[in-house]
Amino acid sequence: MTVRRAEFDRAGHLRDEPGILEALRSSDDARVIVVREGRVRVEDGALVTVASAEVGDADWGLLGRHSDGSTLLVAAIAAMTDSIDAAPAETWLGLRDTGGLLDAEHTELLVEAVTLASWLRDARFCTACGSATEVRQGGWSRKCLDNGHEFFPRTDPAVIVAVESEDGEKLLLGANANWHGRMYSCFAGFVEAGESLESTVHREIEEEAGVLLSSLRYISSQPWPYPRSLMVGFRATASDERRARPDGEEIVDVRWFTRAEIASAMNGDGPVGLPGPASIARALIEDWYEARE
C-alpha cells in the first residue's frame, strides 16, 4: 500500500497571528468551505468554495493554503441556512458519498474541514464549568472565558484489521449488525484507555470474530471525520481459522473469502458487498488481494 505525504499546507504559522480569522474573512483572496452536518458541497469532482460574505452565522476556522495559493477557511453552519441551502441537495456530500470523485488534496481538505467543523460546534462550552469558550489559534483551540482552561481538537485512535488465513489464501470479513448482512468488511474498534494498538487488535478480533492471531503488521492509516477518529490499519494472520465465529451482537456473521470471491465482490458481482473506495477498509482488502496476484 502506497504511503503518501500530505497534499495540503495547513499553514500552522498563521494560527497565532492576532485577529487572523477576522482579517481573512474580510479578505478578497480567502475562500470558504462550508460544512453542514458533516457534509460539504461537491460539484464537478471538486469541493465548492465560496466567499465569506456568502456565509451567515457560523463557527470559523483556518484550514490552510490551497495548492493554487489561496487561503482556505471552514465555516460550520447550522442544519438549515437559507442562503447556503439554495444549493441542490445532491451536491452536499460526506466522505462516504464521494468515493473516487475527489483527488487526494480535495479528499484531505474534506476530512480536515468536516473534522474541525464538528469540533468547533461541539466545544462551544467548557467541559469543566459550562462557561462559554472563545476561539483561539485560528480555530484550532478554544479558551474558557471563566477559568482560562484551553481546549484543543482531539483524535480518537481506532484499529481496523484485515485478517488472513495461515496460508494467506483466504480473507476473514464480518457483517456488522447495522448493515443487515448486506456488506462485509474488515474488523475495527476503538482503542481503550491505557491500551496499545497491538493489544486492541488482538482484543477486538477475538471479541468480534473469535479468532486468535499469530502475527500482525501495520499497513497504513486514515483520518476519519465521523466524529474525529484516526483509523490505524493492520494485516493479521489467524492462528486457527476454524475458530471464526461472530459475536452475535455487533457482528452478525463472519466468512472466509477466497481471492476469486473477493475479485467478484470488488467488481460488484457478489457474493457480497464491500466497503466503498473512500475507506481504508476497502484499501486493506485490495492490498490483500493484490499481494498474491
Summed over residues and divided by their number, the pLDDT gives a mean of 90
User: How does the helix and strand content classify structurally?
Assistant: alpha+beta
Low-confidence stretches: none
Largest sheet: 6 strands, mixed
Number of domains: 2
**Tally the helices: what do you get?**
7
Tell me the Rg in angstroms: 21 Å
* Sequence of secondary-structure elements: HEEEEEHEHHEEEEEEHEEEHH
Strand content: 25-35%
State the gist of this model.
This protein is 23% helix and 30% strand. The longest helix is centred in the middle third of the chain and has 19 residues, at 104-122. It is α+β, with helices and mostly antiparallel strands and 293 residues long.
Describe what this molecule looks like in 3D.
With 293 residues, this protein is of the alpha+beta class. It has 2 domains: 12-123, Nucleoside Triphosphate Pyrophosphohydrolase (Alpha-Beta Complex), CATH 3.90.79; 156-291, Nucleoside Triphosphate Pyrophosphohydrolase. It is built from 7 helices and 15 strands.
